[in-house]
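$ ./design --mode recover --in tokens.txt
reading tokens...
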């Protein structure tokens, strides 16, 4: 996906992206402080919002091939199982139990398959939202703080799962997270927003090792990111 000369106002806030290229098949990290515009940018990528000016080239992706998960996922007022089969049915598939069971089993939700989805805990809702996004094999998955309520073992489970999906299918991911260790472990490219501006963008290794941008440097320092101890080792 390529974004060029984007401007988007929401209330008093303005997002400006002169140019952003999301290389296909990569894991992208979208970082920045609260209110800097990450979710607004994600909604533009999804097509939920339209820019006031500028161009978004989705390079042939149609809306059914893009999905987004959020911190407080919207779930249908049905069972866990029905929530999971819905995206498959929507795409004309007739899912059998055998298609769904491994996904629920792996994240520990199979025993809760008949439970009303609205009664799940915050972390369980996020797990269901993640597998609901992954199960229909979209080409672009935007993960907006969806792993924030998960315990460390569950975060590790999903990180491993995402790596396995990448090895098979090379999906494009956009990970929005305040957990920088997670971003460092997972992302090939990082895009840093500061007060509505794209302040830095590039390969994760380069950006985290030699970030030329003072705002990114200050952001990383504030987040107390010790790159050689936590997350990915930068040599
Ligand atoms: N519909 C809206 N009306 C008015 N202001 C909005 C609207 N949507 C977003 N904003 C404002 O736009 C700014 C950017 O919001 P956005 O949700 O994109 O930030 P974010 O980087 O995702 O933040 P966080 O890390 O806190 O989730 C915020 O100041 C927010 O208050």
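writing sequence...
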């Amino acid at each position: 996906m390529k974004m060029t000369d984007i401007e988007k106002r929401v209330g008093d806030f303005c997002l400006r992206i002169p140019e952003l290229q999301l290389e296909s098949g990569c894991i992208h990290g979208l970082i920045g402080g609260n209110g800097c515009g990450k979710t607004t940018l994600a909604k533009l990528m999804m097509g939920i919002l339209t820019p006031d000016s500028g161009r978004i080239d989705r390079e042939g992706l149609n809306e059914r091939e893009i999905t987004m998960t959020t911190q407080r996922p919207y779930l249908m007022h049905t069972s866990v199982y029905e929530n999971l089969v819905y995206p498959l049915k929507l795409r004309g598939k007739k899912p059998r139990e055998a298609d769904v069971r491994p996904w629920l089993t792996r994240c520990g939700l199979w025993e809760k398959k008949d439970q009303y989805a609205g009664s799940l805990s915050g972390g369980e809702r996020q797990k269901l939202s993640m597998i609901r996004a992954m199960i229909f094999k979209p080409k672009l998955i935007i993960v907006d703080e969806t792993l924030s309520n998960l315990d460390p073992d569950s975060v590790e489970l999903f990180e491993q799962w995402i790596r396995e999906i990448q090895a098979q299918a090379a999906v494009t991911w956009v990970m929005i997270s305040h957990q920088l260790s997670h971003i460092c472990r997972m992302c090939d490219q990082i895009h840093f927003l500061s007060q509505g501006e794209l302040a830095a963008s590039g390969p994760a290794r380069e950006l985290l090792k030699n970030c030329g941008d003072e705002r990114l440097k200050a952001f990383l320092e504030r987040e107390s990111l010790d790159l050689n101890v936590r997350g990915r080792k930068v040599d």
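exit 0
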